[in-house]
Amino acid sequence: MGELLVWYDGGCPLCCREIALMRRLDGRGAIRFIDVAEADAACPIDQAALLARFHAMEDGHMVSGAAAFAAMWRAIPRLRPLGLLARNETVLVILERLYLLFLRVRPRLQGIARRLDDTSTNSPSRRSL
After folding, report:
1. Number of compact structural domains in the chain
2. pTM above 0.70?
3. Using one digit for the tens of pLDDT, what is the confidence trace for 45-61?
4. DSSP three-state, residue 54
5. Residue 115 in domain
6. For residue 108, what are the domain limits?
7. CB 49 within 8 A of CB 68
């Protein structure tokens, strides 16, 4: 299996947290993370589409949504069993429905995450760093 490409929204606090965790778990460096918000990001499809849904390129095939998460999980040994389970069509359909529900609440969750980031950045202990 070759390198997995994953596009993410670097302007989204939820995405940044998720990708930070995936980077820590990806000890082999099997995934190349590409911040779509960067001006020089190589975007194989429309940037707006990349920002609207999670995308990955696995073995030359572009996947999005739950399938992209499953591809990322398969590249990380600890998460590989989940990714393999998602190859089952029924499991993938369920995961995609959950992903679509997440997308509906994502803006509210982003607002909460931004407020939390602002609070921790402005706390007295953080300002003294």
Report:
1. 1
2. yes
3. 888 888 889 999 999 99
4. coil
5. yes
6. 4-122
7. no
